[in-house]
Design brief:
The complex is a heterodimer. Chain A is 76% helix and 2% strand. The N and C termini of chain A lie far apart (56 Å). Chain A has helices spanning 2-9, 11-35, 42-58, 63-87, 92-112, 114-117, 149-170, 174-184, 186-191, 196-222, 233-251, 258-282, 288-321, and strands at 134-136, 224-226. The longest helix of chain A is centred in the C-terminal third of the chain and has 34 residues, at 288-321. Chain B is α/β, with parallel strands linked by helices. Chain B folds into two domains: 1-81 and 167-181 and 198-263, 3-Layer(aba) Sandwich (Rossmann fold), CATH 3.40.50; 90-166, no CATH class. In chain B, the strands form two sheets. In chain B, strands 6-7-8-3-9-10 form a six-stranded mixed beta sheet, sandwiched between helices. A four-stranded antiparallel beta sheet of chain B has the order 2-1-4-5, covered by helices on one side. The chains are: A mainly alpha, B alpha/beta. Chain A binds chain B through residues 170, 172-178, 180-181, 184-185, 187-196, and chain B through 53, 74-77, 79-80, 82, 84, 86, 90-97, 101, 104-106, 108-111, 113-119, 161.
Chain lengths: 322, 263
């Protein structure tokens, strides 16, 4: 009973966190599902979003403006991956890893900017190059905070609705369609006059913008920016996308509207947060969560393949019987 | 319309696998020419089309369409001038997008794609009318995903996409080779109809000598990266498969061509 009560009490926080990660998952969805690129930049660009937001807030910028600045910072991060991939012709996965790597240092530098504020300008070691680098904003006015989980949930919901509406509109435009065509069949896209390099770079920028925006909200929600925060974030994003997709396909067997698909991505993220909370409440070490996440993602990703493999087997049996 | 000047292309230069695909090829197409291209494996037919479409860069030479030197244009920029149908029915369309969405993409070939709607109601109605002409029933499932269509249907759709905005030049790279004979015939007839109706300048690679003779007003035969035979008008009309074989021996023809020649 106690367990159920504690689960129930944690629901607003879980929902808020799930919604923020839902925005992150929407970013992952753009690259993974629409552009057909597994972009690993997100592990670092989410931290860029956190760091930029925290520093902006510390410099007195409004917390809402801060997340939009984070969005722009994320777009720059995405442009870096796009540059590696399209100009330098590095395979997408490697391009993502490379910019993830370089962003680690850049995130350190951004977070190091707070030392200025602490009047240590004379100190040469502006950058706290330690794996525990942390910048806090808990003393500042924020748009979302774990101090008020219910209002955080509402703000999260407003963001999610606005972003889904934006994506729904965008991918219906001529330019948005050319992005979808690039992901669906780049050869055909080029034959129809689409500059696939440009659309790929833009898609990566757009995606990482939302990832960083989610980072900005999460930084405010958790009260700060942590350099290790993004490690493995891509798995959370993928988990949300696949959980959402499996659920969606189970409910809408005939397929559905694009906006509904996006809603399910966010739903997948909320479910993932719920599972995470469950694991914590059961009393398991949160370090187990990564293993559990990997198992969940592997299970959901492989489930449709097993179904495919089974079908022809059955047919064969029928044939031999006859 | 199309001018190819001294085009050369060598694959894997300087290695043991070095292969000359095109050797100083020049070719001029007039407005409204419908050229069929035949030749054995490795003769350079597809490479020639790839040089025009920009899928591969030329080593040497110039590609000029309608007076514009497009030699240094990237593939997507050349698309403005070209309609293309590929051998593999999967290549020409986006499987995860609707029939209408694919056509809408094709309708915007050569235009800047902005933030206007990717497809409008009026366009969709136009597409329905255009698809109905083919009698494949595609008009009644206009929003269906292209991945659900058969190879022949996808090829007809690609053909319509390639010609929706009248291209300066239509490139057909063995676009019926992956289809069964009945569907191939249907697609070929649809091609001929569209080409004639719009008086399109067309290059069509085929491995079928009968088709090469039956369609178009000009026939080109390639061997070892060179054009070895170029015939048009009356002379082309009176060609027969035995003529071709007698002229060039059986050396130039691979088994596939021989088999199709005996149909």
């Amino acid at each position: 009973m106690d367990f159920l009560i504690s689960m129930y009490n944690s629901l607003p926080g879980v929902a808020a966190e799930g919604l923020f990660y839902g925005i992150f998952a929407l970013g992952v969805y753009i690259t993974y599902k629409i552009l057909d690129v597994a972009d690993l930049t997100v592990d670092a660009s989410i931290v860029t979003g956190c760091a930029v937001t925290v520093i902006c807030i510390k410099y007195g910028i409004h917390p809402l403006a801060a997340v939009f600045i984070a969005f722009l910072a994320g777009m720059i991060a995405g442009a870096l991956t796009g540059f590696f991939h399209t100009v330098l012709k590095i395979p997408a996965i490697l391009a993502g890893i490379l910019s993830q790597f370089s962003l680690y240092t850049i995130n350190m530098i951004i977070m190091g900017l707070q030392t200025h504020l602490e009047k240590n300008v004379s100190n040469k070691a502006l950058i706290p190059m330690s794996p525990t680098a942390y910048a806090s904003v808990s003393d500042f006015p924020l748009i979302v905070s774990s101090r008020d989980k219910t209002s955080a949930m509402i703000v999260g919901l407003i963001f999610v609705v606005a972003i889904i509406a934006l994506l729904y509109w965008f991918f219906g435009t001529e330019f948005g369609c050319s992005l979808r065509a690039t992901g669906a069949n780049p050869k055909m896209a080029r034959a129809q006059g689409i500059n696939t390099n440009f659309t790929t770079v833009f898609g990566l920028m757009f995606s990482n913008g939302f990832v960083a925006l989610a980072g900005g909200l999460l930084a405010q929600f958790t009260g700060g920016s942590n350099i290790t925060f993004g490690a493995g974030a891509i798995v959370i994003g993928l988990a949300s996308v696949v959980i959402g997709e499996v659920l969606h396909n189970a409910i809408f067997k005939k397929g559905s509207n694009f906006a509904v698909k996006l809603v399910f991505v966010v739903l997948g993220s909320v479910i993932y947060s719920l599972i995470k909370r469950f694991v914590i409440n059961v009393g398991l070490d949160t370090n187990f969560l990564k293993l559990i996440s990997a198992v969940i993602v592997a299970a959901f990703l492989s489930a449709p393949n097993f179904k495919k493999n089974k079908a022809p087997k059955k047919k064969k049996e029928v044939k031999t019987d006859a | 319309m199309l001018e190819l000047k001294n085009i050369s292309k060598t694959f894997y230069p300087g290695t043991v696998n070095e292969r000359v695909a095109l050797n100083d090829v020049s070719l001029t197409l007039n407005d409204g020419d419908f050229v069929t291209i035949i030749g054995g494996n490795g003769a350079g037919k597809s490479t020639l089309l790839n040089m025009v479409s920009g899928t591969l860069p030329v080593d040497d030479g110039q590609v000029i369409i309608d007076g514009v030197d497009i030699t240094n244009y990237p593939e997507y920029k050349r698309a403005k001038f070209l309609g293309r149908v590929f051998q593999d029915p999967m290549t020409g369309t986006a499987a995860s997008m609707g029939i209408d969405e694919n056509l809408a993409l094709a309708l915007r070939r050569g235009k800047t794609r902005g933030l206007g709607w990717g497809i409008t109601k009026k366009e969709r109605a136009d597409f329905v009318a255009k698809l109905a002409e083919f009698g494949l029933g595609l008009e009644s499932r206009i929003t269906a995903k292209v991945g659900l269509l058969s190879g022949g249907q996808r090829q007809v759709l690609t053909l319509l996409m390639a010609t929706l905005k009248e291209p300066k030049l239509l490139l057909l790279d063995e676009h019926t080779a992956a289809l069964d004979p009945k569907t191939a015939k249907l697609v070929l007839e649809a091609t001929d109809k569209i080409v004639k109706k719009n008086n399109l300048t067309t290059m069509m690679i085929t491995h079928n000598m009968n088709d090469a003779i039956a369609y178009g007003n000009r026939l080109i035969m390639m061997m070892d990266g060179k054009i070895i035979y170029d015939v048009r008008g009356e002379e082309k009309k009176n060609l027969t498969v035995p003529d071709l074989l007698a002229k060039f021996g059986k050396g130039f023809a691979n088994d596939r061509m021989m088999l199709s020649g005996n149909e």
